[in-house]
Write a structure and sequence with these properties.
Two copies of one chain form a homodimer.
Chain A (H helix, E strand, L loop, with lengths): L2 H11 L16 E2 L12 H16 L3 H4 L5 H9 L10 E3 L3 H15 L6 E5 L4 H14 L2 E5 L4 H4 L4 E7 L11 H10 L3 E5 L18 E4 L14 E4 L43 H10 L14 H22 L5 E3 L11 E6 L2 H10 L2 E2 L1 E3 L3 E5 L7 H17 L1
Parallel strand pairs in A: 1-11, 3-4, 3-5, 5-6, 6-7
Antiparallel strand pairs in A: 2-8, 7-8, 9-10, 10-13, 12-13
Helix pairs in contact in A: 1-12, 2-9, 4-9, 5-6, 10-12
């Protein structure tokens, strides 16, 4: 056994989260793509079957009340809340991330005072955020200013209405300084919207603590909600009364079954709802969130423990890559500093698309991101140090043979 | 056996759609709420289980290609197309009806020429359409003009940009004249958006034939897609190049995985997509649509046969109500003329909320609609004439006792 393999064994033996792995359906594959689609939690299939066969098939329409369908968006929002450092009553689940970015950004502009007519957006953002921000700007009479994250502070001013930022960059894995950037946006008198897609469930976010205004995120990455599972919207409690949605569907009405022709928004986070919630996907997500509560015997999973393991995994991966991969064949574009690193490692590599294909054939599943990035995501709930060592070893061997 | 019960038996015996009932999970209940939540098709649970356990659990990320997840919105749109009289390539599935109303209405205003700054909306519409229309008007600089359907023609003029209409009124069950109203909107030079929630799957719509511009609809009523299953958006082929979405998410990009910072809309109906599709709910819907293809032995279900049975069911229900219900206790607000009737019967009734509770206790499930309406929906795929006779009989008995 190599030194690194022995090290991996030691690290796995003392890993307090190793017990959580049994709550996921996994096979011999090293799955480092949980930041694209989280693995299936074992509790989900049974729950979905119950929702389909009994709740829909037998109770039918009664389930809107009796099975808690109607209140699912806010109930499941409250399950996500502790994972992103939010008190209850501030998150609703529903719609896609793109749709929630639109809601949040338009509402943010409307919260900003008169004379503020610029939306600042992270120019390196996941593209959909930029496209939606452009539409939000167009529809609110604002100008869109895409800038590199490092230039955000210098761009803020009296005209800034809203700022849309990514907590973790989807390509490089860089973690942005949410507390400092939030404070800077507030100092400029503007409203901040954070996209948590690549951080929620992988590291502490601290929405309440840092005074974040609005946030959105998907649930199919580190929250393991399943393919295309609904996204969520956070609206800080003090701002809820001023949350003026561009998508005021009947689910956000103060009295949805009053069927009133005049719109009157509901109080609280409910105001972020739009249309009828997508129950199958939503309740699959609810079951997936059970893994955070522990296995019934052990205690719940703390996001602090997840973060500690995540950093240990990415540190160890970089160490193994250094040892196994021929010099000069890959270059990490993920920051070395812990404070700047999310839960992934992105390696620039010539022919990355083909290299990733070969890795997948050999049971190491990561992601290729245009044009030359090998992206490896580390979900601390089910990835172990042995997986990490194997992934780096297979990568090294693949590149040797080339 | 009463005369009407004997008549029901005769009608059931010659019902060519009676064979389809076995494709649904039903019990002793008379289910007349399929216009709120369609019953569970028998093929759905197995399909959902496969999607969860194999496609998600085993193939994981590979399923986006290998299991056809990525192309599901347009593939399933093409399955809905023949049911609403549309050729392939004009419908995408995804998001809620409310979100699709927003997309359609904003896009409609943008298609309308300069100087057109009014949105006309059916004032008796399902409330969410009105709320969303108000938002669309506000965000496009238009004025919203809510008018009774009968007044739509007189309201149209040079300033009309877009008109949002319901094919069937959710409360009264009135069927509006889609061909004539579409022609009137076109004669005024405006763009029409039809909401098909209460007609698709219950009667012929003829989108292509009548030159409809844009249409939206849900899939959980007469299409039986399951609770909160995704809605759909129709964009007539000739208008697709001018469809300018207010929600230009990355799924609607010409090259979604190019991760380009500049937005370039995809060609065709794809342009109506937004974010990552909700796979569990979407593939449950796909399985639910199998019932229209026949049982593998018999031939497919024609929407013409569905309409014929629907009218026979509602006619027979009105006849049975006339016979069984004490005079003066209920008043139908659903039009008698076939050309003006959808697939439901709405009865105004004092204390309708309590009456419906008692009916449900006795195994007849309909809906109560504020303030005084008993709503009964007839899904020809699984409701029989015996059900209809029993529902009216139980209603009569309940009102007698009161």
């Amino acid at each position: 056994m190599s030194e690194l393999a022995a090290e991996a064994e030691k690290l796995d033996a003392i890993d307090e989260l190793a017990r959580v792995r049994s709550q996921f359906v996994l096979d011999g594959v090293v799955y480092l793509d949980g930041n694209s689609l989280g693995a299936l939690p074992v509790g989900v299939p049974g729950r979905v079957e119950d929702v389909v066969r009994r709740q829909w098939g037998e109770l039918r329409i009664r389930s809107w009340d009796e099975s808690g369908w109607w209140t699912a968006p806010e109930r499941i929002g409250d399950r996500i809340a502790p994972l992103v450092g939010a008190a209850a009553g501030q998150i609703v689940v529903g719609d896609s991330t793109s749709v929630n970015v639109f809601k949040a950004l338009v509402a943010a502009v409307r919260m900003a005072g008169e004379g503020r007519d610029e939306i600042v957006v992270d120019a390196t953002t996941f593209p959909t955020d930029g496209y939606i921000a452009e539409s939000a700007a167009r529809m609110t009479g604002c100008t869109l200013r895409p800038v590199a994250p490092a230039e955000v502070r210098g761009t803020l001013g009296e005209r800034t209405a809203a700022v849309l930022l990514n907590h973790v960059d989807y390509r490089t894995g860089r973690l942005h300084d949410l507390p400092a950037l939030t404070a800077a946006v507030h100092a400029a008198g503007a409203v901040v919207v954070w996209d948590l897609c690549h951080s929620a469930g992988a590291l502490p976010v601290g929405l309440d603590e840092h005074g974040v205004d609005l946030a959105v995120g998907c649930t199919y990455k580190y929250l393991n909600g399943g393919p295309g599972s609904p996204a969520y919207l956070y609206v800080r409690r003090e701002l809820q009364g001023r949350f003026d949605s561009p998508l005021p569907g009947w689910n956000s009405h103060a009295e949805p079954f009053g069927m009133r022709s005049e719109y009157e928004p509901a109080a609280g986070a409910l105001r972020g709802r739009v249309g009828t919630p997508d129950i199958l996907s939503m309740l699959a997500l609810e079951a997936a969130l059970d893994v955070w509560d522990g296995d019934g015997e052990g205690e719940g999973v703390s996001i602090g423990a997840v973060r500690a393991k995540s950093l240990a995994l990415t540190d160890f991966f970089l160490e193994c890559v250094g040892a196994y991969v021929p010099a000069g064949r890959v270059e990490s574009v993920t920051p070395v500093a812990h404070a700047e690193r999310g839960s992934q490692v992105a390696l620039r590599c010539e022919g990355a698309g083909d290299v990733m294909k070969r890795l997948i054939e050999r049971g190491v599943v990561g992601d290729f991101r245009h044009p030359d990035v090998l992206r490896f995501g580390f979900t601390p709930l089910y990835v172990g140090f042995g997986d990490v060592e194997r992934a780096a070893r297979v990568l090294g061997a693949s590149l040797e043979e080339q």
